[in-house]
Amino acid sequence: MNDNEERPVTIITGRVWKKKDGKPEGVHVMLVAPDDDSAVRRALESLAAEGYAEAELDQIGDMEGVPDDEPHLSAFQGALEGEVSIVTFDVPI
Q1: Residue 73 and residue 79: Cα distance in Å, rounded?
Q2: Model confidence pLDDT, tens digit, residues 52-66
Q3: pLDDT, position 21
Q4: Can you give the pTM of this predicted structure?
């Protein structure tokens, strides 16, 4: 990829816990990073800064297009602006 080209928004999916042995939440983290290792590192740092005690990341990939619905649309826009955007949701236990 050329340095002048815009980097795609990366999405990382998984689960997070506020407390060890607590209730898990699903998570989608969106950000722009130069490579997968940097993306994972920044995602974990941001999750820790938001108070998550544990994270289990499952998949990483590049977004293909802009999401249609909130809160992912706002998270995508935040990622384009340089933020690490975190979307959490309930998961079945």
Answers
A1: 10
A2: 999 999 999 999 999
A3: 87
A4: 0.91
